[in-house]
């Protein structure tokens, strides 16, 4: 990994696979190693930056020490055709990348990880993950960029998924 991570340490990755999602890596001490906004190419229509996503996962030298929780995609009835297509596309894309990198992964529904991670919180939605992450990791910057004013729920959801992955695989 880019941060000089130890190959013998175990890593847990949470992936919120939407175009506005995120990827977070924690170690076996639940320390955040990296938390990024989903790599995309912005243009007339936003697309996944497949090359950057692949490079991110290739940075793991020993995939047998890596456990991944991929959030199960589901289409909402109010979603348009493009949104529905991109949801399924991103979900399949992540599975393909993880398979090619030889990484062990599980698919988890949003309700499943939220029920566990956000237990006791008043809110069990995107706002709940932001609140939970701000409490668990108060020094972490949850914004998408330095110029952003709002917390990025793709990053906080992926962090909550990484902690859920840790709990399920320790």
Main attributes?
alpha/beta, 170 residues, two-stranded antiparallel sheet
Describe this protein's structure.
The structure is a single chain. The strands form two sheets. A five-stranded mixed beta sheet has the order 3-2-1-6-7. A two-stranded antiparallel sheet has the order 4-5. The protein has one domain (11-169): Ribonuclease H-like superfamily/Ribonuclease H (Nucleotidyltransferase, domain 5, 2-Layer Sandwich), CATH 3.30.420. Helix 3 crosses helix 5 (153-169) and helix 4 (126-136) crosses helix 5. A hairpin with a 4-residue loop joins strand 2 and strand 3 (32-37). With 170 residues, the protein is an alpha/beta fold. The longest helix is centred in the middle third of the chain and has 20 residues, at 81-100. Helix content is 38%, strand content 19%.
Summarize the structure.
By secondary structure, this protein is an alpha/beta fold.
């Amino acid at each position: 990994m880019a941060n000089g991570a130890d190959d013998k340490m175990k890593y847990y990755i949470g992936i919120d696979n939407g175009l506005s999602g995120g990827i977070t890596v924690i170690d076996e001490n639940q320390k955040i190693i990296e938390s990024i906004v989903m790599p995309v190419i912005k243009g007339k229509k936003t697309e996944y930056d497949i090359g950057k996503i692949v490079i991110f996962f290739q940075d793991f030298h020993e995939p047998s020490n890596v456990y991944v929780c991929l959030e199960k995609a589901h289409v909402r009835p109010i979603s348009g055709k493009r949104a529905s297509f991109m949801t399924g596309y991103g979900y399949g894309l992540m599975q393909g990348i993880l398979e090619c990198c030889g990484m062990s992964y599980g698919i988890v529904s949003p309700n499943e990880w939220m029920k566990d991670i956000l237990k006791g919180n008043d809110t069990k939605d995107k706002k709940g993950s932001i609140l939970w992450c701000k409490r668990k990791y108060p020094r972490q910057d949850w914004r998408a960029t330095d110029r952003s004013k709002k917390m990025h729920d793709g990053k906080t959801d992926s962090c909550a998924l990484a902690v859920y992955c840790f709990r399920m695989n320790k």
